[in-house]
Amino acid sequence: MGSMMVVVVLHASPDPKVWEIVQTATLAVDVALLATMIVSLRQQKRLDWSKWRGVEVKNLMFLGLMSGIRTMFLVGMGV
Length: 79
Description:
This protein is mainly alpha-helical. The chain has three helices and no strands. Helices cover 76% and strands 0% of the residues. It is elongated.
């Protein structure tokens, strides 16, 4: 549902300010997801990378990639 909202909002407005607001909010969600993952792994005593499951590694890689793209947009790279 959230991704549909982002697509509709960004498609409806060419205003870069709107894009900045949406990307900033989404980046905040990315950071919250990362924090949640760290807390969860700590509670399970699995902070060591060797104890991670494949899905956790893939989630972290995807989250890092998307956060990096959002951050580059927000600092003006490629705009």
